[in-house]
Amino acid sequence: MNSATQAAIAAVLMPPAKVEDRTWPRLRRHHLGLIGLALVSVFALIALGVAAGWFGQGWSAADGGRWEGVSAEHWLGTNLLGQDIFQRTVHSVGIAFEIGFSVAVLATALGALGGALSGWFAHRWIDDVLVFITGVLDSIPFYLFVAAVAFALQHAPYAMHVAMIATFWTTTSRLVRAEVMRLREREFVQAARLMGQSPARTLIRHVLPNTVHILLAQMAIVFVAAIKAEVILSFLGLGVRDGVSWGLMLAESTQEVLLGQFNNLLAASIPLFLLLLGFNLLIDALQDVLDPRQGAT
Length: 297
Description:
Order of helices and strands: HHHHHHHHHHHH
Structural class: mainly alpha
Number of strands: 0
CATH architecture: Orthogonal Bundle
Number of domains: 1
CATH topology: MetI-like fold
């Protein structure tokens, strides 16, 4: 291959545009997205404070009376056992973020790997196997499958995490597969092949970086789905066991509301609503600003 041909190929083989170069300038003009980012950031700071042990550590202390009202000592009152509802609410934020983050990262990584292999080797045996697995998993009712896996592994320390990861990766895999199948026919991929780059290097260096917009949006979506699934599983007694979460607080409130005690219900449902609202607004904004088909604005 002469130098002129190599130069022409190198001109085609341009590095992928950096996601961060276009994300923030567009996001800061997306007003609803900024509201969502602000809400998520507030909860993220609370979660960091809980992880660092700065607050929310007294959630299990039963140092109050039964169903005390709002006071300077107990900002949201107490529950049946005399535990401070505000402390329990704050600690639940940390639990939600711990579960949401770990599940989102691992499920998205697994989906990216499966989708990349399936798309790159489309219509071969590895693609057939992965498509069959995702089809089987998607055919099972979502919460039924998660509950079944969580129940089967209920004595394992991370049973709920495993159940969610085994479920949430399939959508990411399908999206990445479709994008990789589209990208592998693009000029820069053909140029990489002509320059002698190995398929693995081409896939990792030139194809996968162009799926970042999908992975970031999917990670946020899985984050939200994991939080909602944790609440439902904990409410059913299949989730958090040795701690506290919004799901457990809602489970407690089912009996309390019959006696006119609504503090637990409100303290769990309002933060959950605000966090999910923030993530939904942020996800909508990310899907807009990360879409490579949108021109620079």
